[in-house]
Every structure is written in C-alpha cells, then in structure tokens.
C-alpha cells in the first residue's frame, strides 16, 4: 500500500536566512544582503567589486582570538565558546542585534576572508544565529 501524506498544511521548503560565503567568490543576485563580518578589509578586494551592503566590524572576534584559531584550527571548540562570550559583550552585542533586525524577506550572506572554510568566525556566527531562532 502506498504511503500518502495526511491532509493539512503542505510542507514548505525551508530557506536558510543566513548563508556564508568567502568574499573572494563572485557576488550573485541570490546572495541577498551581503554583510562583511571581518574586522579588517579583505586583502586584494576593491570596495566596488565586493558589493558589500553592510560591514559589521564589531561582529568579528578579537584579534587574539582570531590569531589563535588561525594558528591552530584544532582549537575550534575553544574558539566557538570564547567567540560566543565576546558576542554577548558590547559592541558585538549591538552589532548582532542589528544583524538580526535585517529584513527577513531575503537571505543574508555573511562574508569572510579566511582561507579555512570550515573554521572561521562566519561559520560560528551562522550557527549561533540559527540556534537563536
């Protein structure tokens, strides 16, 4: 006997509001709002070419924390915890509130410059934003 769906609301495809992307990848229309979440401007990227809608420097981790992760990606868990503590303090707290207030009608792409695509502040930030829903 074939399995049928029960009547009621149809399942809607879930859309991820927050996305992450390396700033060195070309901008696309489906990026939505492009938000740079690094403290320093990415090396070799012209501001015109970057197509940045918003630069939230205060969402980036402290210099010491950033350097720790860059030097030793195995400290990812330690980085995530410490970065989470930093995001609870000003000015990061206000910047995070500003990010959450962005229009929900289109995606928000968090841009980062790090080479490590799995271990960077944008990945940690996106996970935190998705947990807070």
Provide structural commentary.
The chain has helices spanning 47-50, 63-71, 76-87, 92-100, 121-131; strands at 18-22, 33-36, 54-55, 108-112. Helix 2 runs antiparallel to helix 3. Helix 1 links the parallel strand 2 (33-36) and strand 3 (54-55). The chain is 34% helix and 12% strand. The protein has 133 residues and is of the alpha/beta class. Residues 1-14 have low confidence and may be disordered. It starts with 17 loop residues before the first strand and ends with a helix. It has a four-stranded parallel sheet, covered by helices on one side. The longest helix has 12 residues, at 76-87. It contains five helices and four strands.
Summarize the structure.
This protein is an alpha/beta fold and 133 residues long. The chain has helices at 47-50, 63-71, 76-87, 92-100, 121-131; strands at residues 18-22, 33-36, 54-55, 108-112. A 4-stranded parallel beta sheet has the order 1-4-2-3, covered by helices on one side.
């Amino acid at each position: 006997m074939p399995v049928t769906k029960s009547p009621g609301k149809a399942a809607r495809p879930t859309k991820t509001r927050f996305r992450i992307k390396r700033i060195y990848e070309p901008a696309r229309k489906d990026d939505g709002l492009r938000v740079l979440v690094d403290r320093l401007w990415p090396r070799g990227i012209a501001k015109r070419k970057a197509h940045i809608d918003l630069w939230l420097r205060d969402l980036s981790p402290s210099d010491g924390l950033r350097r720790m992760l860059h030097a030793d990606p195995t400290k990812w868990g330690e980085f995530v915890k410490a970065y989470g503590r930093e995001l609870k303090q000003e000015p990061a707290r206000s910047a995070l509130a500003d990010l959450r207030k962005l229009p929900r009608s289109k995606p928000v792409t968090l841009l980062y410059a790090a080479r490590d695509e799995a271990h960077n502040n944008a990945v940690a930030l996106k996970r935190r934003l998705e947990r807070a829903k």
